[in-house]
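I am writing to request your help with a piece of structural work I have in hand. Thank you for your consideration; the sequence and its tokens are set out here:
=====
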Amino acid sequence: MWRLVLAAACLVLADAKEEANRADIAKWQGEWRAVAMENDGKPSTGEQLAKIKLTVNGTNYYFQNGSFSEHGTYRFNAAVEPKQLDIVVGDGKDKGKVYQTIYKIAGDELTICLESANEKRPTEFIGRAGSGCVLEVWRRVK
């Protein structure tokens, strides 16, 4: 009997995770522009930010920074706090590489944080000097 209860509890948790992921995937859809980026305490300039664009379709992404572009997929875990996102690079020299990030999304603003060395997933949204992290803020293009 206890095995049946345990199996049912696991199914409920899996369904809750999938529902949270579906809801956040829907929020990510469309085109985004970088409005702020800080890499270990060094902010990007307005000129640098103007070249950066992100387009999301389902769990597929297209990132562009000037003449550089990259395609790949996202793997969401919206059921934890902070929410987690794995960015799986689909082409280029980093094909197959997985970036471990955290994110938050509120309306038309998306914040992503990743560790530059990509050795572990960040636990807080930080980009200040000495953190080793990149903090990105994106705004949806309307």
